Amino acid sequence: MGIIRLNNMSFYGYHGVYDFEKEQGTNFEIDLELFTSLATSSKSDKIEDTINYEDVYELVKKSFGSKSYFLLEKLADSISKSIFNEHNIEKLIIRVRKINAPLDGKLDSVEIELKRKKSDYV
Q1: What domains, with CATH codes, occur in the chain?
Q2: How many whole angstroms from its chain centre is CA 83?
């Protein structure tokens, strides 16, 4: 078992519960940990024997921009489902951060984390 990580993917999106968030948008960051066997690719050195992280990035980008969500949880779940549908992974951990969330206070970001297994989407 191995882990492929994509860290701090940055996107601009229109997700949130307030109308102005859906109209003006804001910055988001996403981290992914993909748990899969790397036994074959570590021996073969062939891209077709592993999870191509460029493909994963493009899938996250497409899922992120395809629909507007109220909750980060739903956004993360939608991205997770699309990854499981396209790639042979055992489980994943996804973290979604909303930068400068609209709160009456100062903070860098709000973050949610989901842990999902392939069986969660069967």
Answers
A1: 2-121 (3.30.1130.10)
A2: 9
DSSP states of 66-102 as a string?
HS--S-HHHHHHHHHHHHHHHS--SEEEEEEEEET-S
Catalytic residue among 61, 81, 98, 115: 98
| CA–CA dist 105, 33 (Å, integer) | 31
Predicted structure pTM score: 0.93
What is the Cα–Cα distance from 7 to 4, expressed in whole angstroms? 10
pLDDT tens series, the chain, 122 aa: 899 999 999 999 999 998 998 999 999 999 999 999 999 999 999 999 999 999 999 999 999 998 999 999 999 999 999 999 999 999 999 999 999 888 788 889 999 999 999 999 87
What's the rounded Cα separation, in Å, for the pair 22 and 58?
22
Distance CA 64, CA 109 (A): 18
Residue 62 annotated as catalytic = no
